[in-house]
Amino acid sequence: MKIGNFDLERDGTFIIAELSANHGGDIEIAKKTIKEAKRAGANAIKLQTYTADTLTLDCDREDFIIKGGTIWDGKKLYDLYKEAYTPWEWHRELFDYAREIDIDIFSSPFDKSAVDFLEQFSPSAYKIASFEITDYELVRYTASKKRPIIISTGIATIDEIQDVVDICRSEGNSNIILLKCTSSYPAPLNEANLKMIPNLKETFGVEVGFSDHTIGSTAPIVAVTLGSKVVEKHFIIDKSIGGADASFSMDRDEFTKMVKDIRDTEKLLGKVDYSMSKKKRTSRRFARSLYVSSDIKKGEVFREDNIKSVRPSFGMHPKYLKDILGKIAKRDYKFGERFEYGDK
Question: What is the CATH number of the domain that holds 338?
């Protein structure tokens, strides 16, 4: 599968820097964040396309007040989203700027009007946010655009995940990536449950990734070892900007280190390869093989004290030692001589 020009099979882990609210209401900070995300090694910058009115109601009832131990407790949903949103009138400039400096850019739409709005920019993909996974009609409409669809599974039941995968496929869109996600901000390490990553792939037959809200880069690295082809992390150029997501976002130094750690992890993982490379062949000289360990006269018996398995590996393979012991020497052998295949 490809996201833009990035091939998930060939190019490794697709690393997304989530802009979210980390622009402080300033388009120049948003553009600088895009630039710094590229410098930090991100493959893409992701926006969020909503308004407070497309997400919730401007209502003071208790249902609309955030509670439950979040960093936003006591705040009205409408006020949070009004503070955090990325103005739609910025999108053209941000898309153009990202493409100008050669970093991929796409967004999370939060309703059908956002999908319609984003289509004019021909995004490389769409992302369905964790809390929108139950909005089946949004998933259906987004999938119908036939672009790769990345879906966070943070609050979903297994049945809901199956439902949205089936919906995407029913729309002729099989370019699906499910992201393991813990919808806590920040997310405790003991709630990450990264073992679900390979299980998501096996259970639903799709590509998988990780949308991370933990602190630090340990979780993304582990996620890559478990098969994540996508890693998404909130990115802020400087936490002093503040904002709704600053406390669990990575600054540029942290993000740069995470990218390096992921790329090093990919090198370490390598591939399944039993072939005999040039380096392997060179190193095999230090393996064992059969050598004459004391002079042997013609007619003498090969014994454990005159034929030994030792380093280096230029003689016969040690697996033949048991076949040789007890046989009669047909010629003289000198100490340190290779015991070779014609000798037995």
Answer: 3.90.1210.10
